Amino acid sequence: MENLVQSHMVPGKSLASSVRTMCWLVTLLCKISPTFIIGKFDGILGLGFPEISVGGAPPIWQSMKEQKLVAEDVFSFWLNRDPDASAGGELVFGGVDPKHYKGNHTYVPVTRKGYWQFDMGDLLIGGHSTGYCAGGCAAIVDSGTSLLAGPTTIVAQVNHAIGAEGIISTECKEVVREYGEMILELLIAQTSPQKVCTQIGLCVFDGAHSLSNPIESVVEKQNRGSDLFCTACEMAVVWIQNQLRENKTKELILNYANQLCERLPSPNGESTVDCDQISEMPNLAFTIANKTFTLTPEQYIVKLEQAGQTICISGFMAYDVPPPRGPLWILGDVFMGAYHTVFDFGENRIGFAKPA
Description:
Layout (H helix, E strand, L loop, with lengths): L4 E5 L13 H10 L1 H5 L21 H7 L7 E6 L9 E5 L7 E9 L7 E4 L2 E3 L2 E2 L7 E5 L6 E3 L1 H11 L7 H19 L4 H7 L26 H20 L4 H13 L9 E2 L10 E5 L2 E5 L1 H4 E6 L2 E6 L1 E3 L9 E4 L1 H4 L3 E5 L4 E7 L1
Parallel strand pairs: 8-16, 9-15
Antiparallel strand pairs: 1-3, 2-3, 2-17, 4-18, 5-8, 6-7, 6-11, 9-16, 10-14, 11-12, 13-14, 17-18
Helix pairs in contact: 4-8, 5-7, 5-8, 6-7, 7-8
């Protein structure tokens, strides 16, 4: 472990990693990282790339490299999700601690510098595709984000699968009620999914993409009128298309879409679940570098103690980043707690391995 700089964390404390200069991510962190509201901090240890550094200040890992203080051009995280453990985690500069992972790391290249961004694939619920990112989505890994943030279209499916309680979106249910059969018929007729909502008049389309505002979190668009109906339609298309692949009947497909409308997240993104049902929930899996990285219910459900009672929170929240940066997943501490993570700035890549 020569020339390694190690930082130990206390249980339950998230180490803020990336310099947050983009408004959309700052807003997100305020919503999903209660640590930033409750905790007392002297500042943020920016571990992003220099491209987003405030005032052009070099990130600490770059300064360490320039001063030849590290043996390898990497830093690595081990986050211990056991609240009763004496050590909450470990950040190692200059290498990895072999005591904290097993097997080999799976590496994926950084596709965009700034945050540690890479390309990922589908999210699977109990081994079944959720559809929206089947063709690929961008993702960033961020230790300063407590939960997992992703497209509303997928998070609604997750909430449905795990029984999370969100808000009822009147507009979403209205779209399914009034246009569900029409969407179904168009998809059966092999209409391009990207053009379905245009053909039924809920979205304006220029032949390449929707001209309404790119998909945003439905709960943030309650007063956006037609934009919200377009968004609800685009989500319904994904849901219905997935059910068609499963050869479900029309009645089952429309009932499923209607149920997903009821699982849209609350305005602040939080969704609660029944703690007694955790063992019955499905495994969820991210597809990265053509491999699946599974999260068990015990890993993606966050337990909080409030007034002597245990409250269980879904580790997933909806947050829609518009193109061209999105659709985007933000893999925070829920994911990093399940997988030892290596940030390799020498080779511009990120590695994941099972923790020891």
